[in-house]
Amino acid sequence: xxxxxxxxxxxxxxxxxxxxxFVGFSYEVSDCQSLTQLRxxxxxxxxxxxxxxxxxxxxxxxxxx
Length: 65
Known about the structure:
By secondary structure, the protein is of the alpha+beta class. The protein has one helix at residues 35-49; strands spanning 24-28, 53-57.
């Protein structure tokens, strides 16, 4: 995301032939899931639903997360 809006919005949005209204999921990380679990669940989103975006929310205060 640019820090300022450009003078022209040409090509600002993704081409609708490539992007859809629903392509992602929200995922809560307050449980501090392991890297293995995150990869497994994100791969499931990709393979089962062809999802490309996952919005993370919540917080994990575990060191290294």
